[in-house]
Design a protein that fits this description.
Blueprint lengths: L7 H18 L1 H6 L5 H7 L4 H31 L28 E4 L2 E4 L6 E5 L6 H7 L4 H8 L5 H4 L7 E6 L5 E7 L5 E6 L5 E6 L3 E11 L4 H7 L4 H10 L15 E11 L2 E15 L2 E8 L7 E3 L19 E4 L2 E5 L6 E4 L2 E4 L5 E3 L4 E8 L5 E8 L2 E11 L8 E2 L4 E5 L9 E8 L2 E3 L14 H25 L6
Helix pairs in contact: 1-3
Length: about 500
């Protein structure tokens, strides 16, 4: 590279000009430091590029040493490579013998509540029954045709016992490579597990599975801080058992609006086990619930020749003529009112019922026994069911997404039967149930209407009731004393 000759005089003049400008601009600085002549000295000694060439070469040599010598040495220290590693041969235990290829493993396993041969585990599907689900709905959701289900159940002597599903039950479905239904497992109404298959002639057959059902009794208590389900979960109750607790007290407590923080409950419950594993089902034997400072008791008792029911301590049945809330665990979105502005029409007019907001498809149940007198579309009500309960009492259920099979006109329904499902048909801004209660054609507020209490047990039967429920009351008192809940009387 050729270097241009340096004009020293020109550089000196330029630097002197810079110095004079700096002295004028920073006058005080130069007055305090009169011996500061670094600029002239610097001008006298110009930059010599010959020395800098050696400096740059020295820096390049140092960088090369770092890259090719020092860094690889550090890398070997951190990796810790040892060229003298000795590998030892260790004797491993002999693996357990497995079934040879093509040989079926006939061992039976309890998988998700189903007794399944291990060789067929991939062919089985386990479904947990939800509230209001039927066997047909479960199969339809799994893509199984109705004809396949009928072929498997039609002609079974105990088909009616097997079709009574409970929330929390496990239904097992076995399908072949083409997706056709070839087997099913489910419990009958007594809790016994059955395997249903087709024999060589295409006829259905049922085979009992598993050991006997073992019943265990335990107690649980809880206090509501956020919700009933949250308190029940902390107390160790399953969701189906929590729903059962709410149904026991559904005649006296409206769980959609009456619950308060601090409400408490204690329960004596019976759980079911098979082969040491907890299975679905079970019953509440006794319970106490304090709501807004008032205590309610429930004792399970089966009168001779009758079905089990719940009674209070005095022997009166908890079952009232009407259920207060015909849809499970919802919130009230609009109350009974003589003047309410309609959210769609914009006009102020009477609201002759109570609106329960709930997700679409939530089952709606009959509030009492009766006969369906109207079923179908009714203008602003949308899909509607009206039930005549006798003695001038009737109820209306509006805005249903669809009407259930029991909700047909002319059918007689029992209290708690599913008659339809929550929707938003008609004049509705969101999914909810519109519920009306009428006495002799006059609308009454369903939340405040009172019904006469049922009569107590007869004197002779009352003595039997007290002897049968005495142990339950003792267990209930023990649960309350242990957890310090439900002390009010």
């Amino acid at each position: 590279m050729a270097w241009q000759p340096i004009d020293l005089e020109q550089q000196i003049r330029r630097r002197q000009t810079v110095r004079r400008h700096a002295e004028r601009r920073h006058h005080h600085f130069y007055q305090a430091r009169l011996d500061s002549h670094f600029i002239p000295n610097f001008a006298v000694t110009p930059i010599r590029w010959v020395g800098e060439r050696w400096i740059m070469s020295l820096i390049a040599v140092v960088i090369g040493l770092l890259v090719f010598v020092v860094l690889p040495s550090f890398a070997s220290v951190f990796t810790g490579t040892d060229r003298s590693t000795v590998w030892l041969a260790l004797a491993l235990p002999t693996p357990a013998a497995t079934a040879p290829a093509g040989h079926d493993d006939s061992r039976i396993g309890l998988i998700d509540g189903n007794y399944v041969p291990l060789a067929e585990a991939a062919a089985w599907t386990s479904i947990q029954v939800q509230s209001g689900q039927t066997l047909g709905q479960i199969c339809a959701s799994e893509g199984i045709k109705t004809g396949q289900l009928q072929a498997l159940l039609q002609g079974l002597p105990n088909a009616s016992r097997l079709g009574q599903l409970r929330p929390g039950d496990r239904v097992g479905l076995r399908r072949n490579d083409r997706g056709a239904l070839t087997g099913m497992q489910l419990d009958d109404d007594l809790g016994e597990r059955f395997l249903i298959t087709l024999d060589d002639h295409g006829l259905p057959q049922a085979q009992a599975l598993g050991g006997a059902v073992e019943l265990r009794v335990r107690v649980a208590s809880g206090q509501i801080e956020d919700s009933l389900f949250g308190a029940a979960e902390q107390a160790g109750l399953s969701d189906p058992m929590t729903l059962q607790l709410a149904k026991v007290f559904a005649y006296d407590i409206d769980f959609a609006q009456d619950l308060r923080v601090g409400d408490a409950f204690s329960v004596v419950l019976q759980e079911r086990y098979r082969d040491g594993e907890k299975i679905s089902g079970g019953d509440i034997l006794a319970a106490a619930f304090v709501n807004r400072g008032k205590r309610y008791d429930a004792l399970r008792f089966t009168p001779p020749g009758s079905n089990p029911e719940y009674y209070d301590r005095s022997g009166r049945s908890l079952r009232k003529a009407f259920i207060r809330t015909p849809v499970e665990f919802t919130r009230i979105s609009s109350r009974f009112s003589s003047a309410r502005k309609h959210p769609i029409l914009g006009r102020t007019r009477a609201h002759h019922g109570v609106d329960y907001a709930a997700p679409s498809g939530t089952p709606v149940i009959a509030a009492a026994d009766g006969r369906i007198v109207q079923s179908g579309w009714q203008n602003g009500y949308g899909n509607t069911v009206v039930i005549d309960h006798g003695r001038g009492h009737s109820t209306l259920y509006g805005h249903l997404s669809r009407i259930a099979g029991h909700g047909r006109r002319g059918n007689r329904v029992s209290q708690g039967s599913v008659i339809g499902y929550v929707g938003m048909t008609g004049l509705a801004t969101g999914p909810h149930l519109h519920y009306e209660f009428r006495i002799n054609g006059v609308h009454r507020d369903p939340l405040s209407v009172t019904m006469p209490p049922p009569p107590p047990l007869a004197a002779g039967l009352l003595a039997v009731f007290r002897r049968a429920t005495a142990p339950l009351l003792a267990q209930l008192a023990e649960a309350e004393a242990r957890h310090g809940t439900v002390a009010q009387r």
